[in-house]
C-alpha cells in the first residue's frame, strides 16, 4: 500500500517513533520560573518521558513577558545548569539547551535593539503573540529581527484565531522569512476544534517549518504519546526539511 493511502486512506497507522524528529523545540521545563515545571522532580520526569518517546534533545523555552514572567538570560541559563546537573546525577541521557519564548511587547522590541536575546540553532528566536488580537507591529518586529541578524520563528501559529484561514497573511509571514511553529497537541483538539482544523490545514498546505510539544506538564507528553498514530503527525514528522532535525 502506498504511503499516500496509508496516510489519507483511512488505514490505521502504526505509532510513529518520535526519534525521527530528533529535537523538541518549545517547552517550559526549568522549574519555578514560569507556568511550566513546578519542581526539579517534575522536570526530570518530563525529560525521562521525552527520552522514552525517542527524543535526543530538548530546547526548552521559558516565557519572557514583562508583565508576568520577568525572566532574563541569567535566570534562564542559571536554571538550565541546575537541570543539567540533575540529569547527570540521575543518569538521564538526553541533551537539553535553553532559549526563550518571547512575548511581542515593547520590552521584546527593546531587547531586539540591544541584541540581548537568547537564541538557538542558527540564531533562531521563538516569539509569540497575544491570543486576543493581532498586535499592530508584527511585521515591523519581524523586519527588526531579520535586520539584526536573527531568524524569527512564530510560536504555535495555529492557535491565533485572527490567522485562521487567513492564508494570504500566513503566506506573507513566510515571504518575510518568518518560520512557523506548530504545537503537536493542537492535533488532539486540546485547544478546540478550530485550532485542530487549522493545524491540520497548515500541515496539508506544507506551511509548517518546525513542531514542538509546548510541554508545561506531564499531561502534555501523555497526550502527545497518544497522537503517535495521527496521520497529520506522521506527515509533518516525515518532512525532510523539518527544522527540528537539524537543531
Mean pLDDT across all amino acids: 95
Individual helix count: 9
Rg over C-alpha atoms, rounded to the nearest angstrom: 18 Å
Q: In order across it, which strands form the biggest sheet?
A: 3-5-6-7-8-9
What is the CATH class?
Alpha Beta
CATH architecture group name: Alpha-Beta Barrel
How many DSSP-defined strands? 9
Largest sheet: 6 strands, parallel
Task: Tell me the span between the first and last alpha carbons.
Answer: 33 Å
How many individual domains? 1
CATH superfamily: Metal-dependent hydrolases
Strand content: 5-15%
Anisotropy-based shape? globular
Classify the helix fraction into a percent range.
25-40%
What is the succession of H and E elements? HEHEEHEEHEHEHEHEHH
The helix-and-strand class reads alpha/beta
Q: Which stretches are low in confidence, meaning pLDDT under 50 for 5 or more residues running?
A: 4-9
Please provide a written account of the structure.
- With 247 residues, this protein is α/β, with parallel strands linked by helices.
- The chain has a single domain, classed as Alpha-Beta Barrel (TIM Barrel), CATH 3.20.20.140.
- The protein has 9 helices and 9 strands.
- A 6-stranded parallel β-sheet has the order 3-5-6-7-8-9. The chain has a 3-stranded parallel β-sheet with strand order 1-2-4, covered by helices on one side.
